[in-house]
Amino acid sequence: MITVAWKWVGVDERWAGVSDADRAALEVGLRLGEHRDGESVTVVSVGPAGVERGLREALAAGAGRAIRVDAPGGLASAAVARAIAIVAHDSSWVVCGDLSNDRGTGSVPAFVAAELAAPQALGLVAVEIPDRSSDPLTAIRRLDGGRREVLAVPSPAVLSVEGAVAGLRRASLQGEIAARHTAIDVVAGPAGPLDRPELVRAFRPRARARAGPSGDALDRVRALTASAPTAATTETVVLDPAAAADRILAALRSWGYRYADA
Question: Does residue 152 sit in helix, strand or coil?
Fold first, then answer.
C-alpha cells in the first residue's frame, strides 16, 4: 500500500483546501502506484467530518481508498503523526507535502517516520520513479545555501515533497461522479490524549542595557537612531574552549546584552 497524507485546512468552503505540496504528494503517490504493478494508493486525513470534502477530491483524482482518522482539529504535529501511523503502518511508501495551507511547521513527516521507525527523505524538490519496483527511488533534496543532495531511497520510507515536484492530474468527469458516492472509511484516533499544539511565540532578541543619550539634540538623535558613523574594529583571539566561552560572554555583557550568571 502507498499512503498519501492530506491536510484539509479551513471551514469556509470558499477558501478551504489542501496545499500545492499535498497535491504534489498525491501525484507522486499515484505515479509510484502505476510503476509498482498498480499498487493501491490510500489517502488519509486527520480531523473532523469536514475534511472528507478533500478526501473526495483525492478519490476523483485517482486514489483507490480514502480514510479519515476521527480527531479534533488543531492538533500538535506529533499527535497528527500518531494518527496517520494507525493507517500507514503497512505502507511501502508514505508521501506527504512539506507545507500545509495554514503555514504549519512542516514537521509531521518526520514525526510519521519516527512513529513507523522508517527511513525518511524530506524536503524533496524532485522525485524520479524507478522502472522496476525493486529499485530504490531517486530523489533530490534541498539543502541550505542553494545546494542539493541526491538520494537513493529504498522502500519502505517516508517522503515529503515540495509543491513544484509534480502537478496533480486533472480528475475525469467519471472520477468526479464516482468520488461523490465512494464510501470514506472512518477510524478512531489513537488512544490516549491528543495534545493541542504548543503556542509558538515570535522570536524576540534579548534586551540590551544602553545608557541614555547625551549631548545636543543632533547627538541624541544620532544615538537613538544609530545613524552616526562608527569605525569597524576586529579582534583575533586564540583561546582554549573554556576561556573562549568566558571571553564571548564578557564581550556580550560589555555590549549591553543581559545574561544570567551561570
Answer: strand
Cα(85)–Cα(28) distance, integer angstroms: 19
pLDDT digits (tens, 9 = 90+) for 27-81: 999 999 888 776 789 999 998 888 899 999 999 999 999 999 998 877 888 889 9
CATH of 2-188, one of 3.30.470.20, 3.40.50.1860, 3.40.50.620, 3.30.420.10: 3.40.50.620
Residue position matching grid coordinates 560589555: 254
| Residue 261 in this model has a pLDDT that exceeds 60 | no
Residue 70, exposed/middle/buried by CB under 10 A (0-12, 13-18, 19+)? Answer: middle
Are the CB atoms for 17 and 150 separated by under 8 Å?
A: no
Q: Which of 197, 184, 7 is nearest to 101 (CA)?
A: 7
Angle ∠(41,42,47) on CA atoms, nearest 5: 155
pTM: 0.71
- Closest by alpha carbon to 93, among 45, 39, 18? 39
Average pLDDT, the chain: 85
What digits encode the pLDDT tens for the residues 56-66? 999 999 999 99
